Structure formats: C-alpha cells, structure tokens
Amino acid sequence: MSAQLRTRREAREHCTATRLRSLLAAAVATTLAVAPWSERAVAPLMALVCVFAGVVVLFERHVHVPVALRASALVPIGQTLTLPYAPDLPWSWRLVAMSWMGWICALGVAQLDARRRAWMLVAVSASAAVVALGSLADLGALSSHEGGGVINGRLQGPLAQPNELGSLMQMALPFVLLTTFAAWAPRDGRIRARTWRVTSVVGLAGVVAALVFSLSRGAWIGTLVTLTLVALVRPAARRGLMTFGLALVLVGALAAAAGGSFVSAVSARFDSLTSPTRSASDERPAIWAYAGELVDGRPFTGVGVGGLPETAGDATFGMMNVAPLHAHSIVLTALAEGGLLALATLSVLLVVGVRVLARMNARGAPVVEVAAAAALAGAFVHGVIDFPWRAPALTATTWLLVGLLPVGVTRSRRSSTKGNP
C-alpha cells in the first residue's frame, strides 16, 4: 500500500512539475512576443518569468546553473558593486534591477526540459516575423546623404531606433532560418504541411527585409558572423544556407537591375561599411574619445553603471544636444562604467563563449542551442561598434537567449525517476 501511495504521489508531483514548466515556457514566449511592442511591459513580464522560475526551482528542489549562466552572473554582480559611487543612483538601480531580472529569467529558461526549450525556436521566430512584417508596413522613401553615412527613412518598427530593429532581427535570424529549414526537411519520407512551409518562408523574407532596411551596418556585420557560426557548428544546415545565400544574391541582382531609391540607399549604405565614421554628423567618434578619457581617468573602478550621461554634463558630441546613454561600444561602455572588474567580466565571457562554441561543434548541439549561440556571438560583434542593450526589449531578448545556451542534463530530483515529459 505504501508503495502505491508513493507512486501516486510521484505521479502527481510529476504532473505538477510538467504544468509549472509549461507555464514558465508560456511566460517566456509572451515576453518575447510583447517586449518589442511595449517598453513598459518588459519589466513586469520579466518579473513574471522570474516568479515562475522561482516556483519551478522551489517545487523541484533543484536548480541547474550551466557554465554560461555562471559566467554571465558576473554582469549583474559587477554592476551592483559600482552602485556606491554611481552618479545617478535611480537610473543605475534600474539598470542593475533589469540585469538581475534578466539573469533570473535566463536561469528559468535553463530549467526547461528539451521539448519546451525547443518551443523557444518557434517562439523567437514567430515574434521576430510579426515585428518584421509589421515594421515593413511603415517603410517609406529612403534618401542617402554623406556617402551613405546618413540615411533618411530607415526602418525602425516598434523600437526606438533603426539600429535596435537591426539588432533584434540579427539575433532572430538564426532561429527563423533553422525553423524554415526544419519546415522544408522531409520527415519519414514526407514533406511537412504546406501551411508551415509557406509561413516559414514568409517569416524569413520579412526578417531579412527588415534587417536590410534597418540599414544597421553593425547588425549586418553581426549577421555575417551569425551565419558563419551556424555553418560551422551545424553541418546539416550548410546546404540550406547555400540555398539561402543564392536566393539573396538572386534577389539582390534583380533589385539592382530594377534600380530605384531603395536600391540606391542600400547600396550607399553598403559602400559606407569601409568608412562607417566618415559622416560629419556621426557622433560616435566623439563619444568613443570621451569614453576613452573616462577609462584613462578611472581605470580601476569606472564611473558606475549608467554613469555616462551624468559625467558628460553639458558636453556635446557631434550633432547631439544630449549626453549619450552609453559609449556606443560594449567594450568602452563596460570599461568606462565598471573599470577592471568589467574588463575581467568581458574576458571571462569571451573565454566561456569560445568554449561553448567549441563543445557544440564537437558534440552536435540541439538546433535551439546553435541558434542562441550564433545569435549572441553576432550580437557581441555588433556591440563592438554600438550598444543596443539599453533598450528594454533587447535586454530581455538577450538574457532569454543566454538561458538557451547549452545546459547539459537538467533533470530535477522530483522527476529524475520519470524522465523528461
């Protein structure tokens, strides 16, 4: 009798754990879908994910913290340590709170089983496709100035800046691509449903178009890194990537032959990649120089998280009339705000990132992990010349993708005898 009761109790606990993980996955998917459209909703949604993550951990009496999450914990820890000397404490507290919530969200994603983690491939793809197609509805005339350094009419969609849209599309592209490849791959000798195939191609076309017309050079460069890593880590995707590349070349050739203002603006933007700061109105060189001065002045401690606007005071940068929120570079922003601790954090993250990619290449990782790793690597490269993560939607998306990095075994103590649902 006692054995039967124990079996029934374990079955109930297993069922409850399954429901809790489903609720957590639903909260994550909702955050991915809503974040680009509503800046105010990002923090409450992240808090909801944190709550579900805590409930899952407490119920299962087990928490799995993969190496990528251990390394990324240095980000909120380092930011917290700068609070005592941060010049704008309310703003700094807000940034630190977002970082801690982001890390807890990533921890929650890491607790999901393989099936629910695979759901995130579709969740990221669907969210990005909706944002892309909605943004393209606002596409107007483009005009190029200063040799492609300035483009009027760039696409930005529901986000605050075109570069933010470009960054979001760059991170979503490997998810959309691999979802499309899965939709067209035969399964048991049969091609999947036509609706899924057509929907995946439409979503992919929308994401690529939004990425192109955001005219974000940093996002374009990050995309090249992303696609290269997908090809290296996921050999099965190489044929699909070749087809995708040929399709892009064909569409580009047809567009060039047709001509028009769109083609002229995109072409000028591509040409400006060789000298991205030659525009007289580009404020980034002045901001980079100012951030370098801050690093020289306070190399050990930095000025505190979010301290650049306050320390800049009334200084002007190019055509900007307000102080910059960041140094337009992940490296300079980290060094200027966090000093040597931030440098150590960046170094650890780079080493861990390289190790994660090497192991994925050696063992053959799940699709969703490949997509997340490639997306984050491309985002980091983009971050060398920009810093889009002060946008709440990008902050939330980035942390959730960190949670999708390789996790190894995530079976809980409660469900270890039952296996993953």
From TrEMBL:
Residues 205-345 form the O-antigen ligase-related domain. It is found in: Membrane. It is a multi-pass membrane protein. InterPro entries: O-antigen_ligase-rel_domated, WaaL-like. Keywords: Membrane, Transmembrane, Transmembrane helix. It holds the Pfam family Wzy_C. It comes from the Bacteria. The chain crosses the membrane at residues 20-37, 43-60, 67-85, 91-112, 119-137, 165-184, 196-213, 219-237, 244-266, 330-354, 366-385, 391-409. This is O-antigen ligase-related domain-containing protein. It comes from Dermacoccus barathri.
